[in-house]
Amino acid sequence: MSASHGVQRVAVVGTGVIGASWTAYFLAQGLDVNATDPSPGAEERLRQAVAQHWPTLERFGLAAGASVDRLRFHDSLEDAVSVSDFVQENGPERMDFKIELFRRMDAAAPPDAILASSSSGLAISGVQSGCAHPQRVVLGHPFNPPHLIPLVEVIGGERTSADTIERTLAFYAAIGKRPIHVKREVKGHIANRLQAALWREAFHLVEQGVASVADIDTAIAHGPGLRWAVMGPFMNLHLSGGAGGIAHVLAHLGGSIEDWWKDLGAPSMTPALQAQVSEGVAQELGTRRTAELEAARDTLLLNLIRAKADTGTLD
After folding, report:
1. C-alpha to C-alpha distances, 7 to 78, 87, 178, 271, 280, nearest whole angstrom
2. Could you write out the three-class secondary structure of 65-131?
3. Which of 130, 150, 131 has its CA nearest to residue 141?
4. First to last CA, the chain
5. Mean pLDDT by 10 residues, the chain (315 residues)
6. Contact 103, 131 (CB under 8 A)
7. pTM above the 0.70 mark?
């Protein structure tokens, strides 16, 4: 069994932003990749994206045998998955589309292959409903961009086997990811639900005129966001309590936290609010280009991930 738990060839189905990022990461881990996407010009765009991501992945450190030459693009979905050990699907977020796509993949993939979806919100129980072998269908939801961010949320559907869950967790961990097992299907999984809670209040504060878009971004990026990048919310609360830890914090601030919860807003995504936030982002961007921000973000992420690994203490 290899370091990737028996997986040598991965099929990446759908090669948009997420699929291309996954492709680059799998290649950097020394795996063979069969990619497929029916969109015109998909292969050219994929190879350009992989080339763009490759210098960053080289800085991370490539696995033995890693090469962009191990990428094969297939016009046929069935051809791409038929000789793959693991499938990472990244198609449109429509249940009817996913059901048919997974039915086709299930009919063509080898019996032992795992079929994983990157879906950010759909329930895997629905996705697997048209498959003859639903026990091997699982959700493997990455956090964007997958070639940098370690998190992968693994969720089984009603008919997913425990063996598939274990094998999926083991595979992602073997290639350097930080998979978590979400034990029950919920809308948006875990990370997106937590993000949504913050987004809701951020939009509410803008709508109510409490703060500008730029000031809210500053509040997070130069405040709690710095701590959240190091530890999660519960560990941060624990450290805030000093010697008494989280029990001390909850005993003394639990009532205040509950009062804040009751005062949180529930805005509607009206056209007016969308325009207000969009204008605020445009003002915050100024003359900076998105590509410049992405490059700076990626460099900082790379340095942070390396620094966290070097401590040997942080989870």
Report:
1. 18, 10, 17, 47, 46
2. CCCHHHEEEECCHHHHHHCCCEEEECCCCCHHHHHHHHHHHHHHCCCCCEEEECCCCCCHHHHHHHC
3. 150
4. 27
5. 73 97 98 97 98 93 96 97 97 96 98 96 95 98 95 97 98 97 94 95 98 97 94 92 93 93 96 97 94 90 89 81
6. yes
7. yes
